[in-house]
Amino acid sequence: MSDVGESSAVQTSSVDILAGSNVQNIEQETTGTSETDKCSASSNSEVSVTDIDKLNESLVSMEETPIKKKKLSQKKYLQRKYQKIKQTLKEKIFRIEKKEVETAPDEKSSSDLINKLAECFRNTIDRKLKIQILTIFEDWPYSKIREHFDACNHMISVAKNLAAERGILSTPESRSGKTLDTSIVKKVFDHYTNDM
To answer: Distance of CA 178 to CAs 17, 128, 181, 188, Å?
Structure first.
């Protein structure tokens, strides 16, 4: 039992060593209250390679990916890594479970609507209807649309372009195919109706 306490203390202090004075700056930056020059990548030079190696050993023991030394100058990487380490410490060392976030009624109804549209998309063979459904999701990234609707990239790009030009729920124009002359249509019709 004392090993867990020592281990968590070592790991917590390692996180503080890595972040150094950047811990406060990163938290302020994620909340949008940081000063412009307060959190700079150059302040990471205070962290020694030995400290990072110690921290990486602790992270591996917690089944967490180690910190990439060559990415220490990237603010976003440090922010994401800090949040991930903090969450891992809460879950694996301190045994604090994530609180289940209840979905709001609006979120539930929107997910139901998306599911119904996805079902309609899968059940139809009408290409125009499929593209019309996809125009609703013009702001979504391609990967998210593919995840929900199993659509190909070409169909998604056609829908996005159509939505940008004409708005959501617009349908693509019919392809102009070859048309038969009305005299030919009349001859075929007469041929089949005269046999009776």
So the answer is: 73, 19, 10, 17
0.70 exceeded by pTM: no
pLDDT tens track for 126-141: 999 999 999 999 899 9
Q: Are 16 and 51 in contact (CB under 8 A)?
A: no
Q: Which residue has the higher pLDDT, 37 or 80?
A: 80
3-state SS assignment for residue 153: helix
The secondary structure of 88-149, three-state, reads HHHHHHCCCCCCCCCCCHHHHHHHHHHHHHHHHHHHCCCHHHHHHHHHHHCCCCHHHHHHHH
94-100 long-range contacts (CB < 8 A, ≥24 apart) are 94/8
Helices 105-123/142-149 angle, 10° precision: 70
Indicate whether 27 pLDDT > 70.
no
Is residue 78 within 8 A of residue 72, CB to CB? The reply is yes
What span, in angstroms and rounded, lies between the C-alpha atoms of 101 and 107? 12
